[in-house]
Amino acid sequence: MKHLIPLLAFSFLIGCDGEKSNVAPSKDSPEKAASEAPSERSLEEAASETKPTEAVSVENPNLRYVIEGDTVTITGCAEDASGELIIAAKIEGKPVTSIGTQAFSECTSLTSIKIPDSVISIGINAFFRCTSLTRITIPDSVTSIGGGAFTACYRLTSITIPDNVTSIGGGAFANCESLSGITIPDGVTSIGAFAFFCCTNLTTVNFLGDAPKILHGRYRTRRGGVQDNAFRESSPTIYREADAKGWGDTFADRPVKLIGEAPSEKPIAATPPAKAGKKFPSSAKELMFGSNPVVTEKDKAFWNAAKKGDLKAIRSLLSEGVNVDIYGDYGCTALFWAAKHNHKDIVQYLLENKAYIDAGAGMGGTPLQVAAYEGNSEVVELLISKGASVKAKSTDGKTVFDSCSEEIAILIRKSVAKRSK
Questions:
Q1: In Å, how far from its chain's centre is CA 276?
Q2: How far apart are CA 393 and CA 402, in angstroms?
Q3: How much is the pTM?
Q4: Average pLDDT for residues 266-273, to the nearest whole number?
Q5: 171 and 273 belong to one structural domain
Q6: How far apart are the C-alpha atoms of 408 and 378, rounded to whole Å?
Q7: Would you give the DSSP letter of residue 46?
């Protein structure tokens, strides 16, 4: 049976020196946050009051869930579950809409988790101390990430926060020691206390919108109380959009620069050149300050069709003159979205219509990179067979091998060898 973990906002953090720290994030002013944290006893009592209702087993014997009205919440997972786990979009005919509090807490043998598009919220401590987790797919449908959701996921090297997320809970990524960079969507308006506490390898945080509100808290160690900022014990540089509001020279005690000033924006030799005969940006700097296309409603419909797997709509919109390489934020084209959502037939069709296969190189990532990250093996094989570059780098300087599982890496090497024959 799982140990009960306090649930005020997220449980506790393991300090960078291995020392446990009780955390008491504040919902009020910074001054009020500086007061003494509640005792462990009071935290445990509060947690017991929020204990989820009795769960029952799913067809997948590793999972437990509860049905509330017409929706399903995943409430638990066997701690000895291992390897890759795919959560069903529906259970008993009802959509799975939430990953509940502590649902995967202490599942230390899970290496990969795929969350369905039906889920809109990830609860407090949902993936707390999933120490073997290297890859997780969070769908665009998610709007909130709870406190401590990924605390102590030590091996998580990268994660994509969906565009619809508006809040990131306290300690959400604390102690994610392998995380080197992260992008915060423009819809995020608040970030909880200790959100990136002790992310010792975090060097870059890209904010695509206005400066969000940072909530404050205080944690206690044997050396006494320490006031939080979101990046304590982490040393990233903050990068922001040029026209975003509310920014100064520093943010949560970290230096702030324009995204175009990021070191990774310098020319990258391994980045493929822009597609011959078509203007396409090869860096985020060029995307921001170059001559970009005007995006129409048809263009947006084109991207949405690629996300949903609507091949009929793709064909129709191309016949109406939509540019196959029309791109949005960070150079994301229809090919990128189709690769991300594992729509092989649409990837094939777009390539047949001369879509730029390495679109997004030097920016948010190529179709191959996102397909590999999501574990979409058939799409990965298809893209490589059609000439996708394995050397292309994203904004943070990573290639496809830096963000995929070992299984996918092996598949990529085999596919490249096969292509070379």
A1: 32
A2: 10
A3: 0.54
A4: 38
A5: no
A6: 10
A7: H
Categorize the per-residue pLDDT at 302 as very low, low, confident or very high, splitting at 50, 70 and 90: very high
Using alpha carbons, select from 364, 361, 371 the residue that is nearest to residue 393: 361
- Ramachandran class of 295: left when φ > 0, alpha when ψ lies in -120 to 50, beta otherwise: beta
Q: In sequence order, which residues have a C-beta less than 8 Å from that of residue 206 and are 6 or more positions away?
A: 181, 182, 183, 184, 239, 240, 259, 262, 395
CATH number of domain containing 323: 1.25.40.20
The tokens of 281 are what? 């940006």
413: left (phi over 0), alpha (psi -120 to 50) or beta: alpha
Residue 143's CB is within 10 A of a number of other CB atoms, namely: 16
Same domain, 285 and 415: yes
Q: Quick one: 161 and 307 in the same domain?
A: no
Question: Does residue 6 belong to any structural domain of this protein?
Answer: no
276 plus 410 within the same structural domain = yes
Range of the domain at 174: 12-261
Q: How many domains does the chain have?
A: 2
pLDDT tens by residue, 360-394:
876 678 899 999 999 999 999 999 999 998 888 87
Residue 254 in contact with residue 237, Cβ under 8 Å? yes
Structure tokens, 184: 């915060």
